[in-house]
Specification:
Length: 154
């Protein structure tokens, strides 16, 4: 048996990253972006390019990501936003449809998308998670992109 293991690689060297941020629940979205930027700043080798696009809400994130993917200017995409449960079924619709939209863009364009859209019961849960979730969404997307590049070389 021959085992080939591809290690996680968080290098952002020469990457172009597109981040779409929802303005709804702005305090939380800004916290998510701060976490994402914390990762990117700590891993920037000087050749990283980051574009941030703000949209109204989580349902608008997939169409913005689709346009970024269509442009062929980005290596990695990241979605940041927060959907907080309310008293109606709207929470489930927005949560499910935004996640399905991200999956469609990923599959249609063969591009990695970091899913940093929080789905929480209340503001307190979202605030407690925002920095780390933003950090993890971009870290996971960069690592997944680098893994696919490495696979293509084999």
């Amino acid at each position: 048996m021959k085992l080939v293991e591809i290690p996680r690689n968080h290098s952002t060297s020469k990457l172009s990253i597109g981040i779409v941020v929802s303005e709804f629940n702005k305090t939380i979205s800004d916290g998510l972006l701060k976490g994402a930027m914390r990762f990117l700043e700590s891993n920037d080798s000087g050749s990283l390019k980051v574009t941030v696009l703000r949209v109204d809400g989580a349902l608008e994130i997939p169409i913005a990501l689709r346009r970024m993917a269509q442009s062929d200017h980005f290596d990695v995409l990241v979605a940041l936003g927060a959907v907080i449960r309310g008293e109606t079924y709207h929470f489930e619709i927005v949560s499910n449809e935004s996640a399905a939209g991200l999956a469609r863009v990923t599959h249609d364009f063969d591009i990695v998308i970091g899913n940093g859209i929080l789905t929480c019961e209340n503001d307190e849960q979202a605030i407690a998670r925002m920095d780390q979730k933003g950090f993890e969404a971009v870290a996971a997307a960069v690592a997944a992109h680098n893994a696919t590049v490495q696979l293509d070389k084999q």
